[in-house]
């Protein structure tokens, strides 16, 4: 696909990548005075069509779907998920600790109860 852009530019021929990232499709830009001609590969053209269609539906589409923005959103989601996992682990550990303390207290009380039952039996026998 060719895009023609009008505006004053210094004469230049340049090669680059869509969004400036080497993992994205290649583009070629030819600037001649008041005209810039941009040639994009089929893959880049498909991405541009997808972006234009997305922008027609949602004005923030391009911002939300930029690869670096998507990566940051995924990283934040991973961080939040990890924070939730850590919070649940801390809660589980504290609950387990409380449970073991309650069990020890229960065993102590059961020992006292059995001692008192024996004492009551001894008193009744007399």
Concise description?
This protein is an alpha+beta fold and 126 residues long.
Describe the structure.
- The protein has 3 helices and 4 strands, in the order E-E-E-E-H-H-H.
- It has helices at residues 42-57, 61-65, 67-125; strands at 2-6, 12-17, 26-32, 35-40.
- It has a 4-stranded antiparallel β-sheet with strand order 1-4-3-2.
- With 126 residues, it is of the alpha+beta class.
- The chain is rod-shaped, with a radius of gyration of 35 Å.
- The protein is 63% helix and 19% strand.
What share of residues is helical?
55-70%
Overall pLDDT confidence: 87
N-to-C series of helices and strands: EEEEHHH
Catalogue the unreliable spans. Answer: none
SSE topology:
Elements: E1 2-6, E2 12-17, E3 26-32, E4 35-40, H1 42-57, H2 61-65, H3 67-125
Antiparallel strand pairs: 1-4, 2-3, 3-4
Keywords:
alpha+beta, 4 strands, 3 helices, 126 residues
């Amino acid at each position: 696909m060719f895009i023609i852009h009008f505006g004053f530019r210094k004469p230049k021929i340049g090669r680059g990548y869509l969004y400036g990232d080497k993992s994205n499709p290649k583009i070629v830009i030819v600037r001649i005075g008041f005209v810039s001609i941009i040639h994009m590969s089929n893959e880049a053209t498909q991405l541009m069509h997808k972006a234009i269609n997305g922008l027609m539906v949602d004005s923030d589409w391009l911002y939300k779907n930029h690869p670096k923005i998507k990566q940051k959103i995924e990283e934040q989601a991973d961080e939040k998920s990890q924070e939730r996992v850590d919070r649940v682990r801390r809660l589980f550990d504290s609950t387990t600790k409380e449970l073991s303390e309650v069990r020890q207290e229960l065993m102590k009380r059961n020992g006292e109860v059995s001692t008192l039952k024996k004492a009551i039996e001894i008193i009744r026998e007399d």
